[in-house]
Amino acid sequence: MAAETGTPTTLTLKSNDDELFSVAESAAILSVTIRNMVEDGCAGGVIPLDNVDGKTLASVITYMNGISAIPADEEKKKSYRDKFLSDKDFETLADMVLAANYLNMSCLMDAVSAKIAQVMEKKSVGWVRRKFGIENDYTPEEEAAVKEEHKWTFEGVETDDDN
Amino acid sequence: MSNTMEKQRRRIKNMQITTVVPDEIIVEILSNLPPKSLFKLKSVSKSWRSLISSPHFVKKHLNKQLLSLKLMLTFDESPPRRRYYINSCSLASLSHNNNNNPYSRVAMLEHPMLSTPIIDSPRLRKPIEIHGSCNGLILIIVGSFMFLWNPSTRKSKNIPHPCKIGDFHDPMKITLLYGLGYDESADDYRVVCSYNSNRHQILVGPYETEIYSLRSGAWKKADTIQMGFQGWVEYSGRFVGGRLHWLGGRYYEKEGGSYGCDIVSIDLAEGRCELVAMPDCLRHCHRVFPDSLKVLGGNLGLVCYVDNDCDMHIWVMKEYGVKESWVRVLTILLNCGVSDMLSNREEKRWYIGSLLWSPKKGDGVLAYGPGATNFRPVFGPTCTNLVFCDGRDDELRRVEVDLVDRIVEANVYVETLVSPFGDDEAGYVL
């Protein structure tokens, strides 16, 4: 046991583009997916994470290390999460929400979902379609009718651009 | 990597996102958004529209929003216009201890009376009364008009008033009690209206009681309430544990006579009526005044003034229906927090507009005053300050706001998609 020998156990995680990462077990088990693998004895060698790429995994590990270094103080954890996510663009956040879901990390999942929602709040319908890759399946008449029904909700929406 | 390659990579990545983001993650993300944005996003696609309209999503969204409390203040505009209007702001913005004006992010709400010109004309001016707030729905009453209103979706439903007695606005002739709650067993929102037309027994009863079901769209007779109140009764019922509660004054003849209070409750499923268990020290407390029954963190709470008239004790019934579970959880020393703005002793009685016991430590109690109360008739000087107590140090923090008009009422609500028309509307698909 790590606690008895004094050396923390380290796990090796492998992204789907074959990058290897070392991370303290105590931080990595914030992911229920990884914790289950550890408990099932699969952590001996390298843990393959088939749904997460290297860039995203590096980011998630930064988060794991950062948040697990904070003692049980919900306010401090919250401000760490806010700061951690503050400079992430939409694509990075989308990758992270998928990774958080796959890794089963509810605290990260909630924080990233809330952040994505915050980014989306004032965006145009076109922006949301592009970012989520959604095809507009309304006929022009149907779309006009839906927009007319909720006309007031388009007040204060940002003008369409490519960002 | 060349620019073109980068763009291509982006495009491929975006494609991957589309195919991978499953509906449950979309739901997670969207449930953080306010109703206004969600209504806008109904035009993204047919599947987003039906997802956002589904009862499952409405519930999921509600559960997420229950912690984000909003404050709703009803104002009585100064002459010459003299309209009633309603403002809202987030409670978190008031509790944050920053130097900016915490009341700056305020929005005026489009309440149903704005589009009902006949009521809003100064000649027929009647106060806007808010008698219930439950899961985003507000019970709003002006004269004989009754609306279920969701301020976040701007939808409102006119409900026919059940009381058929003529001229029922005269408080000398009739007393009307109202309440709004949710019956979990039937997944139904219910409005309660109790009325008494016997001018000699206005407070004592009996009270004819009817319950409106949003699901059936009809009123139904419930238990007649025998109030037994003396002196005063609160008009708005407080919703806790599937029951609505009204607080009223009592006079106890025994031992030379003493004033006190009682709480009567009615359950929304069966319409059964009973008295709430309270320890004698509360039942015989003669320093309980109208607008003292509160909902604190999902429990019934009671405000009792201390003998000096300006400090108050907050009691909470920790376990519903258990007399021994009433405990004093907080003492508010109004004197130390606000004494500098009160010039004479007469004005020292502050009324708590909305008392909150948020699950998160730090958010707490809101009071306003002096002299403002939603106990009719309304008297008192203009309130020009909001006072906030964060419950941590029992001290009131003064929120510096210059209010031009008088606050008549303060209520708390949440921003949800719950429709005043029930599930019928939510299930509507283009």
Structure write-up:
Chain A: GO terms for molecular function: cullin family protein binding. The complex is a heterodimer of chains A (163) and B (430). By secondary structure, chain A is mainly α. Chain A has helices spanning 2-5, 25-28, 32-39, 54-68, 74-86, 90-103, 106-120, 125-132, 140-149; strands at 10-14, 20-24, 46-48. In chain A, helix 4 (54-68) crosses helix 6 and helix 6 (90-103) runs antiparallel to helix 7. Chain B has 430 residues and is an alpha+beta fold. Among the domains of chain B are: 23-66, no CATH class; 279-339 and 370-403, no CATH class. Helices cover 17% and strands 34% of the residues of chain B. Chain B has ten helices and 24 strands. In chain B, the strands form six sheets. Chain B has a four-stranded antiparallel β-sheet. In chain B, strands 4-5-6-7 form a four-stranded antiparallel β-sheet, with no helix packed on it. In chain B, strands 8-9-10-11 form a four-stranded antiparallel β-sheet, with no helix packed on it. In chain B, a hairpin with a 2-residue loop joins strand 5 (137-142) and strand 6 (145-150). Chain B is globular. Residues 7-19, 335-365, 368-384, 390-396 and 426-430 of chain B have low confidence and may be disordered. At the A-B interface, helix 6, helix 7, helix 8 and helix 9 of A face helix 1, helix 2, helix 3 and helix 4 of B.
List its traits:
heterodimer; A: 163 residues; mainly alpha; 2 domains; 9 helices; 56% helix; elongated; B: 430 residues; alpha+beta; 4-stranded antiparallel sheet; 24 strands; 17% helix; globular; transmembrane helix (chain B); F-box-assoc_dom_typ1 (chain B); F-box domain-containing protein (chain B)
pLDDT < 50 runs, ≥5 residues of chain B: 7-19, 335-365, 368-384, 390-396, 426-430
What is the percent of helical residues of chain B? 10-25%
Biggest sheet of chain B: strands side by side, in what order? 3-2-1-24
General shape of chain B: globular
Percentage beta strand of chain B: 25-35%
Task: Return the average pLDDT of chain A rounded to an integer.
Answer: 88
The string of secondary-structure elements of chain A, in order, is HEEHHEHHHHHH
The radius of gyration of chain B is: 23 Å
**What's the mean pLDDT score of chain B?**
73
Count every beta strand of chain A, where a strand is a DSSP E run of 2 or more residues.
3
Q: Which descriptor suits the 3D outline of chain A?
A: elongated
Q: Helix count of chain A? A: 9
